[in-house]
Structures are given as C-alpha cells and as structure tokens.
C-alpha cells in the first residue's frame, strides 16, 4: 500500500534515473497490465495462426468455399483498419484520468491529522490537572476519524468490523459504544455518526472554559476550530465516497478502450491476400504473389512488411491499458491496491503521536542557555565532507547584478536649477502629457551630459540656465502648446 519510490530518484544526474524504476514490480505498470497483455497477445496470435494455416491450405485454390471465407476475413480486417482511428481514445481516456487523479489528491489532502489539535491542547490546557481532558479530547478526535474510515476503507473495516473491536482496542468505552448504538438505531443506520465523538470533545472544551482552565475566548475558539477542521476532513472523505465520477463516463472509457483493442486484433493483422490480373476477356485470373501488374481484391496495402510480433501495437496496448489501470487504481484511494492509501498506518500513527503530544507534563527545570549565547550564528552552518560536495552558491535574484552609473543614480533634487526649470515649464495649464514627456527627456539628457558643470556653476553662484523672470513665468502660464514646444527646443539648444 502506497508505494514510495522517490528515494531512488534523489538526483537526475545519473543516466537512466527513471529507467531503474522499471525494475520495481509492486505498483508498477508490468504488475498492473500483465494479465490483460497476456490475454491480448494470445488472442492476436491465435487469429494470426488460424489465418496463416487457412491461407496455406487454400493456396492456389481460388473460387472455392474456403477461399471465399478467407477473402471475407481479409475484407473485414481491411475495414477495421480504415476506421479504428474513429475512436477518440486519447482524448476520452486522458480527460478521465485527469479527473480521477484530481479526486485522488483532494482526498489525500483531506485526511485529518491530529497534530495541530494536540499541540494546541498541550499549549492552551497545560498542567497535570488537565492531562486527562487533553487525552480524552485526543481519543475522541481519533475515534471520529476511525468511524469515518470504517465507512470508506475496506482495510479499516476489516480491522474494526464492529464497535466491540473498538472497545477491545481501547479506542472507545462501553458507555460510548452504547451511545453510538443508540444513535445508529435512531438514524436506522442511514447516516454517518462520525460527528458524535467531535461533539463530546466540544462539550469537554466548554467545561474547561467554564471552570477557567481555558483563560481566553481566542484560545477556546482556536481549539474549537481544530475540532471543526477534523470534522470537515471527515465529511469531505464521506462526500467523495458517496458522490463518484458519473458512472456513464466510467463505462464510456471502459468501452472505448476495450472496443479499440478488440478492433486492433483484426486491423493490425498481416494479410497475404490472393493476387489477380485481368485477362484479355476481362476476367480476374489468380496469379502467384508478386506478379507484375497484379492486384488484390480486398484493398490491402501490400507494402506492409510481415512482422510476426506486432511491436508497436503492443506498445500502444501498454500505454493505453496502463493509463486505464491508473484510473482503476486511484478512483478508490482507500481500497487494497498497491498504491492505495494505507489508512491503518494513519490510524496507528495519529493515535500514538497524539497521545505523546498531550501526555507531556510541565517541566519545572530551568531552561538551558542558548547554544550560541549572545553571539550571532555564522552565515553558513558547517558541512560534512559528503554534503560539501553538493553545496550550492547563494541564490541570485534578478536585480543583484544590476549596476548603475553615478549619473544614473542622481536623485531628483528640486533645488537643482535644471529641475527648477522643469517645474517652470510644466506648470502650463494647457500643456499636454506628450509635451511634458518631451521636456522631461530634454532635462534628463542635460543632466547626463553636464552634471558636473551644473554643480560647479551652482557653487559659483552662476546658473547653468537663464533664470526665468517673473514676467516670463506669468507669460508661460498663459502660453499655448506651440510656445511650450519652442521653450523645449530652446532648452535643448542650451544643453
């Protein structure tokens, strides 16, 4: 269950990394389709051998009953070959497998884990006095998950077929079993009752809140949310087990795959039809194969070479039936296939780890000092000889290697005479955005070409540009767009 192979592909540097995985039998394509492939090859070989024997015995006997049967068989094979591509197998099967894989992964991510709940219980309900409460809530959360898995997983229901088995393993008490049995009688067994233990856990939290063990409404809400998340995950699993991919689609895919390869049993056969030539009287005369200007009457392409093993047809069978086997395996992830989820391991792990988390008592010992004291750790921790061989350089981000010149890094200083002139020329109420862009470009070019001269002139009290008078500023405010263009040209000339 749940074949893990990622440990064999820790690096792609080796040649044939994935090819080595072909040796794995459990969960592999060979184990999944070998029976179907054996049946297909057997049927193909049986048809081919029967045809070849019939052709051998009827060689040179055209026109008799056996020859008519062979000709009819050959016409049937040619007909199948011409129309087998009418089945859109790739599209139908590909879309179906995509939906199955999405459903499978959603169910994997919906499996509840008790880690968050148990860590919060240990933090929000500390102390020896609340230890029993923490353990009770953990067991009830686990019980709710097990009751859900009993409804969806065949391996779990075989492990815990009745409530009594849960009592004997310590997952439930006799009193709790009677409550669940009474609830089942009330609902007549028509509805899942996995929510009931969650309700017990919520009641226990409410009591802890009332007696002051939970000191904050936020902590109480957080613990309640953890229980609701577990209940929501259980509900998702039940919903996916109830509502499946429409049966008509599953039937359609199954029919398409099997009908297609039934057709290929005939369409991919090598044929050796009788050859004929036309006599002077307009009649067909049977001639030996390969005779010049001879034709066959069944429409078979005689340029196809005779290979006893249909290699590419077998490859196609492996691909498509392997694809179908993926869907058959993943459509029920809680079954008993090699790649199905090991629900029993999840139960064992959650139960023990959950109890370990909530059973720890407060440690009264003084906390140890930090290993680095008051110092800052180095930028890189030490490596072993083996890990240092694969040490990678620090990440490089897109702008790390971007270098700007000093001129390009000059700030937009409003006191600089160039930018003062820019402010004057851009205050025109009628200036269009295109004119402003041209003026900005002109000023920027001036900064790039004469930055040092501008600074020198400013230090000497001499402006690099003529200072606009008040009357000029007044006139510039009322100038038309064509005057702004002239100002820009003058500014460019000065630059």
N- and C-termini, Cα separation:
79 Å
Label the overall shape: extended
What low-confidence regions span 5 or more consecutive residues with pLDDT below 50?
A: 451-481, 487-495
Q: What is the rounded Rg?
A: 41 Å
- SSE topology string: HHHHHHHHHHHEEEHHHHHHHH
Give the number of helices.
Answer: 19
Entry keywords:
495 residues; mainly alpha; three-stranded antiparallel sheet; 19 helices
Quick rundown:
The protein has 495 residues and is mainly α.
Explain what this protein looks like in three dimensions.
The chain has about 500 residues and is mainly alpha-helical. Helices cover about 60% and strands about 0% of the residues. The chain contains 19 helices and 3 strands. It has a 3-stranded antiparallel sheet with strand order 2-1-3, with no helix packed on it. α1 runs antiparallel to α12 and α15 packs antiparallel against α16. The longest helix has 29 residues. It is extended. The two termini are about 80 Å apart. About 20% of the residues are buried. The C terminus is likely disordered.
